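Onboarding guide, step 5: your first structure request.
Type a short instruction followed by the sequence, for example:

Predict the 3D structure of this protein.
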Amino acid sequence: MRYFVWALRLIVFLAVLLFALKNTNPVSVIFFDGLVIPNVPLIVVMLSTFVLGTIFGLLLTVPPAFRRRRELARLRKEIEKLQAAANPQAQAGLSPDALVPLSPI
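The system replies with structure tokens like these:
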């Protein structure tokens, strides 16, 4: 599976690189309120939007990841409570002497 992911990453990288290298013509970037940046290479516009899209996509995964971590911590605490309730002898703090006496038989 690891090789498949790396192969997929390589294919995407090569596709973006080849597409960008073929589109080097200058373009005008028009923002809101009439702000214009003339003669920007199309490669810069495409790669910057690709990078910004990747960053925004990763930022969208942050809140669900934190939610899963909190849920995981809550479930682990619940498991510890249930194990303590099911096995009270382990929590009683019995010394090893109580289980196996030190005196010879």
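Each response can be followed by summary notes, for example: DSSP finds five helices and two strands in the chain.
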